[in-house]
Specification:
Layout: H1 2-17, E1 34-41, E2 46-52, H2 58-61, E3 62-66, E4 75-79, E5 83-88, E6 91-96, E7 108-114, E8 118-126, H3 139-145, E9 147-155, E10 161-162, H4 170-177, H5 182-189, H6 200-214
Antiparallel strand pairs: 1-2, 1-5, 2-3, 3-4, 5-6, 6-7, 7-8, 8-9, 9-10
Helix pairs in contact: 4-5
Length: 216
């Protein structure tokens, strides 16, 4: 029961405070159309160009990159093993070892929702039991309805994990995550006011600010 309560609370906090939302409505970026973007090669080099915008799960699987948006012959398809990441429109994707499931280790493009030493991502999974698209339903409404989302975290180059990890022991997990900031970790462990579950994202922001100031 505690696990369910925490996930519901965290979902509420996410909706209330997670403001770096990207457009999935189709009002700004449409599926199948090409927009300015870039790819990041395995060498770390960034190549500017144009990228085709897919739906939530499509964007996680591949990147259709164009040097010339008006020339289909300039298209190059990059899989997750080919590049470190890419950008299309307002969405930045990174290849990290999270793809849902029990372990979530295989590489996949995950949508970056907030950057920092503790980076935050959103991973989408299609609901297998979902019904077919309704007659009055837009492709964007259907894409939203048929997908579930999972908040994913990665500290530096450590193994990514999803927010279900916090459901077991939120305070212990968060304190361990920010342990190198001893003062912040102590505030969480001691349950000081303003350092509880409902300040989840503010705590991560505070840690990221501290890290930027103190990194060597």
């Amino acid at each position: 029961m505690k696990k369910i309560s925490f996930l519901m609370a965290l979902a509420f906090v996410a909706m209330a405070t997670h403001t770096n939302a990207q457009d999935w409505s189709g009002k700004v970026y449409q599926f199948g159309k090409v927009y300015p973007g870039y790819i990041i090669k395995l060498t770390g080099d960034t190549v500017q160009g144009f990228v085709e915008h897919g739906d939530r799960t499509g964007n996680q699987k591949k990147c259709n990159f164009y040097t010339d948006p008006n020339n289909k012959k300039s298209k190059v398809v990059y899989k997750v093993d080919d590049i470190k990441g890419y950008k299309v429109g307002d969405k930045v994707y990174r290849a990290i070892n999270y793809s849902g499931g029990l372990f979530g280790k295989p590489l996949n493009f995950n949508l970056l929702t907030k950057d920092g030493h503790i980076a935050q991502y959103m991973y989408y999974s299609e609901v297998m039991e979902i019904t077919m698209r309704g007659g009055n339903e837009t492709v964007y409404e259907y894409d939203k309805r048929k997908n579930t989302e999972m908040q994913v975290y990665q500290k530096g180059t450590e193994q990514p994990f999803d927010h279900q990890k916090f459901a077991l022991k939120w305070g212990k997990t968060m304190a361990e995550l920010v342990a190198d900031d001893k003062e912040l970790a102590s505030k969480i462990t001691n349950k000081e006011e303003g350092y509880g579950m409902f300040k989840h994202y503010e705590i991560i922001d505070e840690y990221n600010t501290w890290y930027e100031k103190n990194k060597k």
